[in-house]
Write a structure and sequence with these properties.
By secondary structure, the protein is an alpha+beta fold. The protein is built from 18 helices and eight strands. It is elongated.
């Protein structure tokens, strides 16, 4: 699974317009994840029973609120950070956290900026973060905690052992969800082959895909915070989530044919809209199948037992090494899964992207999928 980058790119993400709350949190905490030089320096400060105030970035705005202190412009080192924290005043680093620019600085942010903090150091940290847009770290001497302030939010670093426990519990939950997801996907494939799929069957698979996605996001957040302490959790997550995003994409494309008639809309736009609506469901709505069906464009006016025919994207997606352009061409030509299943290899060759060899492979693949799905269902 991709990790959030560390350094100036993280700062760019933190400051980006429209970045989500969870993404801001991950971007901020990835800078101080275990294994980074900055985290090493912070742990030295905490173990030394010293407080600190650290600004992660410098520009004219930061310069205006800095008073006193001295310029350093030296390379970052955890030991240097620890020694400089012994002095009164804040420390200013560059965005990439590779240079210590200033130390023993008094920060004078706008006192009119809102803050919910009570301690002097934490109040200053929140206001500086709000005024400059840069993350600010406050290390509490008395509480021995590290808090990161960014974009009006406060994130307290958790102990790696607690994060690991939470991540392993989430992995166990995801494994259970994955089993149910695989069962729902296999059941829907068999029903599609028989042309008996109903709205409830599609909503059930969409529901389980979204549940798995939310647990995956929680684990991904733990991975960012754990840094090098994550161990093999990332590999386990990749194994459990392999193919789920593709399954979700093909499901939503399969059952959004009518919306492609919207003026100016591409065939993928309705699926993207359904994906956003599904992601936006509350926890209560996600456990309600009619709400899920409505989110993906199959309700609520229609009954949950109403028959729905797929275009064929999901089943074609199960044929190994079938190019996406060829799959899209087949769906555009035949218009439904049932027509694809009844088509001969010669019929399939009508599609420009399909040659004789590929047509035979698609025909054999469809027959194999149909036989396997029905055999598994009725065993």
């Amino acid at each position: 699974m991709a990790r959030l980058p560390v350094g100036s790119e993280v700062m760019r993400q933190v400051l980006a317009v429209g970045i989500g709350r969870d993404e801001r949190r991950r971007a901020a905490l990835s800078v101080v994840a275990p294994g980074t030089p900055l985290r090493d320096g912070l742990e030295r400060i905490v173990h030394g029973n010293t407080g600190a105030l650290i600004v992660l970035g410098f520009d004219p705005i930061v310069g205006e609120i800095c008073s006193g202190g001295f310029e350093l412009n030296v390379g970052f080192a955890a030991t240097r950070l620890r020694e400089l924290a012994k002095m009164d005043g804040a420390i200013v680093l560059d965005q990439a956290c590779t240079q210590i620019l200033r130390a023993a600085v008094q920060l004078i942010p706008d006192p009119g900026l809102p803050t919910s903090e009570s301690g002097t150091r934490h109040r200053t940290a929140e206001r500086v973060s709000r005024q400059t847009g840069y993350p600010v770290i406050a290390v509490s001497k008395s509480m021995r905690t590290v808090a990161v302030f960014t974009a009006g939010e406060r994130y307290v670093l958790e102990d790696s052992a607690a994060l690991l426990t939470r991540a392993h519990q989430a992995l166990a939950t995801l494994e259970r969800y994955k089993h149910r997801l695989d069962d729902a996907a296999a059941a829907l494939t068999a029903l599609e082959i028989e042309d008996r799929a109903a709205i409830a069957d599609i909503a059930r698979l969409a529901q389980r895909l979204e549940m798995a996605s939310r647990v995956t996001e929680e684990i991904a957040g733990c991975l960012v915070e754990l840094g090098t302490d994550a161990g093999s959790i990332g590999l386990q997550l990749e194994e459990l989530t392999a193919g789920t995003s593709r399954e979700r994409e093909l499901l939503l494309r399969d059952y959004r044919p009518a919306a492609t008639a919207v003026c100016g809309a591409t065939p993928d736009e309705p699926a993207h809209a359904a994906d956003r609506a599904l992601s936006g469901l509350s926890a209560d709505d996600l456990v309600d199948l009619p709400s899920v069906a409505a989110a993906i464009g199959l309700g609520p006016a229609a009954g949950m037992d109403e028959h729905v025919s797929p275009l064929g994207h999901r089943v074609l997606g199960q044929i190994p090494r079938l190019p996406q352009a060829a799959a899209d061409g087949l769906v555009a030509e035949f218009g439904s899964l049932q027509k694809l299943l009844s088509a001969s290899a010669q019929d399939l060759r009508r599609v420009p992207a399909i040659d004789a060899g590929l047509a035979s492979r698609v025909r054999e693949g469809l027959s194999r999928i149909a036989e396997s799905a029905l055999l598994e269902r009725y065993q």
